[in-house]
Amino acid sequence: MQRFHCPACASEIWFHNTDCLQCGAGLLWRPEAGGGAFVQTGPDHATCANRAVIRCNWEAMAGQRLCRSCRHTTVVPDLSVPGNDVKWARFETDKRALLALLGALGLPLGDAEGAPSPRFEFRADPMDPRAPRVLTGHADGVITLNIAEADDAERERIRSEMGEPYRSLPGHLRHEVAHHFWQVLVQNDPQRLQDIRAVFGDDRADYREALAAHYRNGPRRDWAQFYVSAYASSHPWEDFAESWAHVLHLLDGIETATAYGLLGPTGLPSNAGALLGVPMKRLAGPWIDLSIALNAVNAAMGHSSFYPFVLRPPVIAKLEAIRALISQAGQGTGGL
């Protein structure tokens, strides 16, 4: 994420702000191809209809009630249930950041008819404890997310129960959107499919059985040598999705660290779109150095690790395959 300044008083603001904390000016994010900018609220800039509900700070599209981000959401939780609005808002805040990043990378965010794609469904578990829980996942361009994970305690409980080193809302979004882009960019392109299979393995392996075996027997013993996470070893689709998520972690993380002067002179570009053109071997070095330093700072403050992953050469090669795919697919597209 870049650093931003109030268009009225030039004080620093953050990507999620609806108002400048210094001068009180109302703020709107206007997404544009490859990026965007903040403007002041006013007669020339319509606010999104969800601003009052979830503090959406994006500008409504011309002739529309909703902004570009909110138009991607097709199902919202029952807002008559106390707390659902807060959980939904937390997911939408991170979804806006995700869409801004995907747009900066030039990835397509519409289907063949121009409708928003992927679509997001934010659902709550049914009140009846005997009824099936909402499962986070992707199916044919629809990303379903269980808003229970917006509760930090619940997400930590699941993380601990699953034996995961890391679980976050941006991580969920970045992982699930990868499954969408597998279908959009890879599935129906014979050459790309062949290239991706050469790196991640044959995705025609039975998916349900692979996941069942993973949860029944655990990951393969040598997973850490070849996969960015234990879950990535369960099936090529999950390896692809986990690797995709980590490419977005690196691009966004390095952009943010550069904006705040945390990396020192690296010779790297300062924005995610340009960083996409840098080979992963080149990006991995500064990222690893930054991760080691921030892991140590977090430990000193009694927090969990900032980035509890090891990027060995086989993993970096997989991240490079994803980076190259996004770079190729993003050429000539307008993104947001």
UniProtKB/TrEMBL annotation:
It comes from Thioclava arctica. This is Zinc-binding metallopeptidase. InterPro entries: UCP012641, Zinc-ribbon_6_bact. Residues 3-80 form the Zinc-ribbon domain. Pfam families: Peptidase_Mx, Zn_ribbon_DZR_6.
